[in-house]
Amino acid sequence: MPTKKRTLRSLDLGVFFAPPLSASHPLAIAQFRAWRLKEPVSGRRYTVVKLQSQSGAAGYGEGGPATSAEIVEARAIVAGRRATETEFVRARLAALSAMEAAVSNAMLDLVSRSKQIPIYQYLGGPTRFKARLLAQLEGSDEASIAGPLERARRLGFQAFTMPALQRDGMIPLQEYVNRMRKQVDAIRAKGGADSEWVLDGAGLMTPGDAATVATALDRTHLMWFDEPTSVLTTDGLAKFGDESVMPIGFGRKITDIGTFQNMLRNGSVNVVRPSLGLNSLAKIKRIAAIAETHYVAVAPYHSGGPIGTLAGMHINAALPNSFIQEVPVPASDRDAAMRAELTSGNKEVAEKGFAALINRPGLGVDVNERALDAHSEERI
Amino acid sequence: MRRRDILGAFAAAGVLSGASPRRTLLQDCGCAPQIRTASDKPPGGAAFRDVGSKLRITNLQVFGVTLDERIAQADRPYVFVKVETNQGVVGWGEATLEGKASAAMACVMDLKDLIIGSDPMQVEHLWQLMYVGSFYRGGPVLGSAISGIDQALWDIRGKVMNLPVYELLGGPVDPRGIRGYYHASAWSLAEARELRDQTKAAGVTALKFQLPDLLEWVETGAKLTRAVKHMEMLREGLGPDLDFAVDFHARPSPTVAAIILREIEPLHLLFAEEICPPENVRAMARAVRYSATPIATGERLIAAYGCAELIDLGVIDILQPDIAHIGGVTALWKVSAAAEASGIRMAPHACEGPIGGIASLHVDAAGPNFLAQEICGFVDGGEKAKVWEDLMGFPAMRMVDGRYPLPTRPGLGIDISEVVLKRYPFQGTRPFPTVFHEDGSVASI
Questions:
Q1: Helix (H) or strand (E) holding A314
Q2: Which residue ranges make up each domain of chain A?
Q3: Chain A residues with CB inside 8 Å of B119's CB?
Q4: Which residue of A has its CA nearest to B45?
Q5: CB of A325 within 8 A of CB of A313?
Q6: Looking at the predicted complex, does its ipTM rise above 0.90?
Q7: B184, B218: one domain
Q8: Residue A238, CB half-sphere, CA atoms under 13 Å: how many?
């Protein structure tokens, strides 16, 4: 297929953005605070940003782990901008992915709160009335996953991640495949007949091993095989499509929309998995628009905190091609307690596998700043 | 009878009930259970009661608007759409489809059952309902009808949130306005120079011209030479600092287009538009590879799906979907998002009325990959500009210093005078002008 001499690539977003129109506009960002958070047992880290506008409206957003310097840089860039300017943030914070997510989502929360509508309403209105949830379970095997699975089931989840068995180089391939099958069967049995599963490869396999596993598990009807490898070369990715019909999820480390687009146009991904910690809702909406034309579903990856989870439910509600929202379910009571404190009560719960949408302004919950202070490694 | 009423009637009669004693395996296609479970889930329905707004669509009107042939091209009566709500907020959109006005108006009304009673804030869901739910996806008639309704829904969303639509799409890249271009023609060097002076005096920075002849799929040396000489004459007359584009209007084949494109490359045009018919992307690619002139196309494409192949195959530099056909604000924004990721700029087509033009400005404003906005107008706006000003109360889609000013009011930022609309009653569809080659065979205009 002949293509133009110019190669396909993302535009250089050195786009000219005019200076802020008026620093006194009611939606102009006047205050910026951030908390670097770490859960006590799992060590899970994330960043929460609070923005306040000239009118006094406030909004919260979560991104992945960020350094103090990154937070300070982001603060300087967005000062005085209107909270509607998510495109400005996407361009100017492109190199600071975690901050792009946190700041842009905080802007959406701020504007939605000031307009007295939920974020999903601001993003285009609900396309569904409940959001399917996927419990991300801690644990590496059948034994260690049992406790988290039990907790997640008590919380109403019906879909779960299970860890893929990683290959010891000394084990023959046939034996490895047999053990993988056995582990999958055993974990599924623990989940019960109504459970649905995603096999989490954690990006640790070679494309060849992952393709072998995918083919061997084709008929198990797992929902998908997630992040089987970190090798995202065209040839590496082609192995899955050539050898297996198992749906493949990718994207937890990808921050460039063009990379998602390339995978989609090459047929290398069946479930698009942009991380909520590295991509704002505004950016995920763009990724989803591209995925839609390839008939591919979106299921945002999430390994951060509860404010990120709630943001994920809002984008899930607004996208026509969303499928499920991942929710980290802590194994430890201390981690669970911290997460619940941040949002004034545990909002990461399901009913028969779905979460009801929260029809309240913004994220729809009260963020507990006292808890943010108490659990932060650093406040900026 | 509305669709959901029909479903209710079926259910009451037991037609949709799997337990009906009259059910026979030989008369069951298997759709009944799926249809039955859908009865409470339309937008605004019971299932969405707790997650949507209190707004409901109470009426949908469609207006055919025919301007005098001396004022505007007779092939395009405008098709305007008005959506009314239970809280008095109304939205306007445009579903104009050149040469198919009656069909577009009928299709808008075909969609009425899906819309009345719905929550207008569910713009994405309603878009899916109209497109996916119509079963027959795509096509310019459905695309235009969806476009009109979708624009009106965005108008309502913006008014409810008290924000211009471009703010809802991520904020303006440049609040000073949107670069645009007018249509123009010049048939001699003297005319081109005069046009240059008029254009510069008006502060306009770009124009678009047509090729001088109809073209066949292989062409005579005379016509090829005339096409190239015409473009060279325009560059000489307009000077080096005025951008201009040339619209091939899908007249030539890729074979003929390639020859012309190669020769006009040194003129550094803003873009070459619709260099060949749009259906076959791979055929278009054959012509494109011989030229560095930016290639633009897209005005006849419907929905983001319709643009995916063009984007994925890397054939073009600029996409030109039309907000009155592609599927409204929702679809134009999605195309823009996909284009941006592939380094493709946006120069949306707009050759209809002022509502679509203004709706397009909102998407343009929030797009970092935006290049220029078309409108079917000239440096001298003439009588048509006066009609538009009459309709909307301001000089709609007229540039100031080369830019269309951004609307500042909520929604699309417009009001339509229905009193003025009544002065231009619909006088039926007028077909696209037909043209023929020298031997009487059908040509593309």
A1: helix A306-318
A2: 29-116, 122-379
A3: 125
A4: A129
A5: yes
A6: yes
A7: yes
A8: 4
Contact B185, B198 (CB under 8 A): no
Name the minimum distance, in Å, from the CA of B11 to any CA of chain A.
23
DSSP SS3 for B306:
helix
Rounded average pLDDT over B68-96: 89
DSSP-derived 3-state class of residue B93: strand
Q: How many domains does chain B have?
A: 3
With H, G, I as helix, E, B as strand and everything else as coil, classify residue B83.
Answer: strand
Measured between CB atoms, which of A18, A265, A320 is closest to B312?
A265
> Which one, of B413, B409, B420, lies nearest residue B387 by Cα?
B420
The single-letter code of the amino acid at A15 is: V
State phi, psi for A137 to the nearest 5 degrees: -95, 140
One domain, residues B119 and B192: no
Q: Are residues B158 and B249 in the same domain?
A: no
Q: Are B58 and B116 in contact (CB under 8 A)?
A: yes
Distance, in Å, from the CA atom of A53 to the CA atom of A25, rounded to the nearest integer, reads 8
Residues A208-256 have pLDDT tens digits of 899 999 999 999 999 999 999 988 888 888 887 778 899 999 999 999 9
In this structure, whether the domain defined by A29-116 belongs to CATH 2.70.70.10 is answered with no
pLDDT tens digits along B409-430? 999 999 999 999 999 999 999 8
* B121 CB within 8 Å of a chain A CB: yes
* pTM score: 0.94
Q: Active-site positions of B?
A: 249, 349
- Nearest-CA residue of chain A relative to B119? A125
Select the residue of B47, B174, B304 nearest A18 (Cβ to Cβ).
Answer: B174
Residue with tokens 């591209």: A290
Those residues whose C-beta lies under 8 Å from the C-beta of residue B229, and which sit 6 or more positions away, are: none
Find chain B residues with C-beta within 8 A of A17's C-beta.
173-174
Half-sphere exposure of B250 (CA within 13 A, CB side): 13
Residues of A in contact with B280 (CB under 8 A): none
Task: Using a CB–CB cutoff of 8 Å, tell me whether B254 touches chain A.
Answer: no
| Closest in A3, A86, A286 to B285, CB measured | A3
Give B-chain residues touching A6 at CB under 8 angstroms.
Answer: 314, 317, 343
Residue from A1, A5, A7, A11 whose CB has the most chain B CBs within 10 Å, to mutate: A11
